[in-house]
Amino acid sequence: MAPQTIVxxxxxxxxxxxxxxxxxxxxxxxxxxxxxxxxxxxVRSVGKGLLALGFGRGDKMSLLxxxxxxxxxxxxxCLSIGGATAPVYATNSPEQVAxxxxxxxxxxxxxxxxxxxxxxxxxxxxxxxxxxxVVISGYDHSADKxxxxxxxxxxxxxxxxxxxxxxxxxxxxxxxxxxxxxxTSGTTGPPKAVMLTHANVWFTCESGRKMxxxxxxxxxxxxxxxxxxxxxxxxxxHFLHIYYGSQTWFAESLDTLLDDLKxxxxxxxxxxxxxxxxxxxxxxxKLAAADPNDRKVKLALSAIETxxxxxxxxxxxxxxxxxxxxxxxxxxxxxxxxxxxxxxxTKLREAIGLDQCELPLSAAAxxxxxxxxxxxxxxxxxxxxxxxxxxxxxxxxxPIEAVKIGTVGKPMPGVEVKIxxxxxxxxxxxxxxxxxxKDEEATRExxxxxxxxxxxxxGELDEHNYLKITxxxxxxxxxxxxxxIAPQELENRIKFHDLISQVVVIGDRRPFLxxxxxxxxxxxxxxxxAHGIDGDFAQVAGNELTLKELEVWMDSINEKLAxxxxxxxxxxxxxxxxxxxxxxxxxxxxxxRQINEIFAEAIEDMYDKESPRSASVPAPERK
Length: 623
Description:
By secondary structure, the chain is an alpha/beta fold. 39% of the residues lie in helices and 20% in strands. Among the domains are: 6-174, Rossmann fold; 477-617, ANL, C-terminal domain (GMP Synthetase, Chain A, domain 3).
């Protein structure tokens, strides 16, 4: 019989392509391979160790580590014996870790190192159901031996267990079994535990293959760098990697991503908007810093403009219901573009390691359409998608052959999408979660009696069934005058300035719209030097020239909007938003409720009639 779960397919891979490279990671500066056979051997060893510790079908395992092969091994070991994984963001605080470990009924926690172990030990008194903690690396056996053991100890514990015991457990894993929790990082309130079954995962893999698969899946490669606790990274670099039999490379860190990309040269690549924004800013910064009269700079600008002309014609074809390849390009433009692509554009793609990328993807938050236009113009045809943890990642995606800029694509094969009377996006399909763990009330709010999942997002479908997101239902601002405002659209426009990192628009039940702005920490030094501004980050943020620059930019935004939609006042913060202060999620989305609470004083000041249009304000000290 053909596999019905990712577990079955994983073990098929270990038998059918045992010598093929599955995972690659850097060790002492050298890329090292793990074959499918070796991957299977490691999973079996860890799985037997878990069984020896009394972990079995229906039990829960928390997984607290950065991206590394051991993460995948531990996860597949847990799933292979009928357990369910509760991934935890490596950046979470001890209190946040304890919440997930306790709420998920975790029996065994696997942590990366001593720093992560300390988070668990600090909260040990609040975790009565936790029986064992396994430390992947660096454990010196200094903690309670009845509670903590090393990775090697875990493997040793299972070494005497017969393989048949593991295989018997593996054959009992079925489609309807719980596979994992995804704790929604959320922008408000405590996280909820989304339950995902093996059937949810399998359906998503099958649906993805029909719409957004790499051209040559078996020989494809991607890079793992976003938190594996996030469902998009989990699907793309872990589950889909198994499904396709492709190769996953592990970035050394987010800081080394650009260098890693140049070595990996992924054939498919997923990034959240903030990463694409960084790439865009890097390219634009180099072009802006160069001599505008330099021949190479002129050639680069000409190439980008030619690419944009091609993109316009491609988008016209998609608007007519056709594919990008159906665009009617004049012969002269076609030849010019082919030449400039070879001379210039391919070098721009090489500069960010995406010269071999055939499937560039973006999701998790809206991406400014102008950025997508730019990347399409240089030959990186970003396909934007949309979904949430509650439907295992994707609701819709742009087919790579017919990307429609400004939309998040068409419903995934097998997924129904409709727009409710109030504009909310509803989805129904086999990818939709059974609900939230231990929260029946929230589950009833999520999924109605007809099986429609209520996304909480507002959108519309066009004549070709492309979905456009207009805003979060609960984020809609209703001004004191009764006007409904979609803040994300405004924020994306404002963020397009090179100096700006994050924007939060304020105005619910207020007389006008205002905004909190943070500056890009990487761009500030060059900006200050170019404008003769001395001082640290905070002094640059508050400098008159900086504020004037942003006022002029805000004027250019406001003049294209209705008066009620314009930003009347803004405040520039003396630092960027920080995850450790609970201001942004691990995927770099702002937490509106927290931002409104933390910066309440600065917000109130903007609504004082006597306060200036713009000013810099210090962020409150961390408590």
